[in-house]
Amino acid sequence: MDMQYLQIAVFFLISGLIGLATYFKCRDAKKSEDHSVKGENKEVFLAGGGLSWIFVAGSITLTNLSTDQLVGMNGNQMALLVWWEFAAVIGLIILAKVFLPVYYRYGCTTTTELLEKRYKDHRIRALVSILFLLGNIFIYLPVMLYGGSLFMQTMFNVDLPIIVLAVAFALVGAAYAVFGGLRAVAVSDTYSGVLLLGLGLLVVFLALKAINFDFSGIPAERLTLIGDKDSPIPWTTLFTGMIFIQTYYWSTNQTITQRAMASPSLEEGQKGVYVAAIVRLMIVPPLIVLPGIVSYKLYGNIGDAAYGRIVGDVLPMWLSGAFAAAIAAAVLTSFNSVLNSSTALYVCDIHEKYFGKVANVPKLNAVITMGFVCIALLLVPVYSGAVSIINLLQQLNGLLSMPILSAFIVGLLFKNVDARAAIIAVVVGVLEYAVFTFVWTPTHYIHLMFVTLICCVAIALIANRFLFGGHTELVFGQVKKLSNDDHHVTSMK
Length: 493
Fold this sequence. Notes:
This protein is mainly alpha-helical. It is 76% helix and 1% strand. The chain has a single domain (2-387), classed as Sodium/glucose cotransporter (Up-down Bundle). It has 20 helices and 2 strands. The chain has a two-stranded antiparallel ribbon.
């Protein structure tokens, strides 16, 4: 019992120190002097354009790294899952070299703002924003609350209902998003990230030490990086849908891309993305596969219980409270990041266009944030009955990712495309992937994502020509030209 109290005390001490350090860092930050709506949006949702490369890198890294990834990836207990991280490096490079210069050129607050400016129509921006919001509010926010609460309940063996712990997570996460905006979110991400990555590497080392760094006896299919057609990642998918999944996630997803758009200059933002890519390549891969592989040798095929069990067995008891604080920080940072980006999408893409100018952006931010939090909390019990949260997320994410990415690809690579054609393609793409997921699945879902993307792009171009009489012009050099023209950009517009 005394050791449990020590765990809890260490947990609250470290969590409090992270919050305190975040407060002092944000308090001393220079605030924007632009009090227009655009200026207030930039202050709340883009940290006033003041994120240095270290906070861009830290926030991007930890926003993506949470219990879903640590538990879910290690739960497969095989090396093959490392391809998600290697492919993510390519996705981050595409963000830095292709998309980020265009976002800076157009002075975007949201990624969807780029769609409006390329298609010269607000409707495509609103549609994609709504799709992002539906996914964030009804899927990701409640799942994060449920997953984090379940982990804490198990970690401390507390007799508290999941919903009580979820309320605690939600209130703390909302506080960061409301009172500090993106700046507080990114700073807390970075401080928490140092703790999580450090303890995560320690777990890897102790796990390997537990088997004397000897992988003998582990089946070859658990160690190979070449997946067959029945594996989670068949090797052929690396050349079809994998790269486009990463492009969607790292380059168009507001939750991730927002951090890279919040630097004082394009070059600063790119530097942060490159550092995040290095972390993704050098540090994250062992965290998400090695503990799971070791657990297979020690315990056999135990699935999602692998990470929790290996951590409990190899980590000294006195460090368990610190590790719980790191995991809680990972959950919080993912939650408040999605919360802040969701509010940005609603305020900038929907409210200002359809409900009039915003008199007080911080106040509206607070109201909308708490509304989203309430919806997420109401849905926590729904997800607590799901058989597999990870599989459910993969299915539902596929419904939106490729149709949304098609709108960006068509908008950037072609001129004179009617926004209505892109809207038709997005809607048809969602329906098409729904059929692939729930009715007819002829091949691996990553291949089907690629098929969906190609179909969406083709539908947009065909509809533009034959329904709206547009004469599409392919401009291969357009994105490169935008990047080159903006190489000299030194400040956010």
